[in-house]
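User: I'm curious whether this sequence folds into something compact or stays loose and floppy. Could you predict its structure so I can see for myself?
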Amino acid sequence: MGLMQPPFDPADLPTGVLMQVSPLVARVLAPNPSPFTYTGTQTYLVGTDAVAVIDPGPDDPAHLGALTAGIAGRPVVAILCTHTHRDHSPAARPLSELTGAPIVGCAPLTLEDDGPRADAAFDAHYMPDRIMADGERVSGPGWTLEAVATPGHTSNHLCFALIEEKALFSGDHVMGWSTSVISPPDGDMTAYMASMQRLLERDDAIYYPAHGDPVEQPQRLVRGMMGHRKQREGQILRFLERNGSGAIPDMVAEMYRGVDPRLHSAAGRSVLAHLIDLDARGLARPAGNGLWRTG
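Assistant: Here's the prediction. I'll summarize afterward.
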């Protein structure tokens, strides 16, 4: 889930079509475009003879039909989920029933979501057959996927590294089209920045995000995104220093000029995540009545 700023036409990209993007990786775009999901959720199929399915997406009959057609009768070794927002994991159970494959990957997580959009709520029905810890692997003929723990967007977020192609399925943690929304109480800016630093230190050659195009210079993008978050942090501190105190809606109005107003509530969640992180570091603190001031 991200904040989309540029316009897009979802009709420009076909849904339900299996598209080969590398020798081991193909993708199918789900029909769920929105200002938060960009052109929709991309489900990845990894492997040739027997496959893994990453982020099966929404429980949509057309999307499930497209995935079944793309699998084309091949054995499914595992169905993996990066996290449990409802645009990522609900199709796992019906796809498992169709293919007999186990559901593995992130841990289940349910809580009342007070975030910016209804379909970002957590999938309360997600029940994995195996939870993958950081560094654990699942493999099939010619491919190996390793779990990389990347909390921040959600506390249960995992990326999956495809060892044979030095590729990383980055879920919603890193997307080329947008920054990820960090929405407390589960979204955590401190954890997010630590996870970004971890990715920066890896040598992956390409990222395949759940939304948007492949990222072909991933370390450069991660470095830029970390810089963007530091700039946003600086904006917040300057706002508070200049005004003495301030409320989140006023910060959003100033810092997100030109962004679709429909996205301002989501922007406010990320500002709150920054403020919580700044509070933990002694740089800002709540001042009562929804106001914040410098620490």
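Summary: The radius of gyration is 19 Å. The CA atoms of residues 65 and 114 lie 32 Å apart.
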